[in-house]
Amino acid sequence: MPAKAKHRRPKQHPIARRLAFAGTGGAALALPLISATTAGAAVTQPATVASVTTLAPAAAPAVEKAAAPLMYSVIGGDTLSKIAVQHSVNGGWQALYDANKSTIGGNPSLIQPGLKLSLGTAAKAAAARARTISAEPAAPTYGNNLDGWIRESLDVMAKHGIPGSYNGIHRNVMRESSGNPMAINNWDSNAAAGIPSKGLLQVIDPTFRAYHVPGTPMDSYDPVANITAACNYAAARYGSIDNVNGAY
Question: pTM of the entire structure?
Answer without folding.
Answer: 0.49
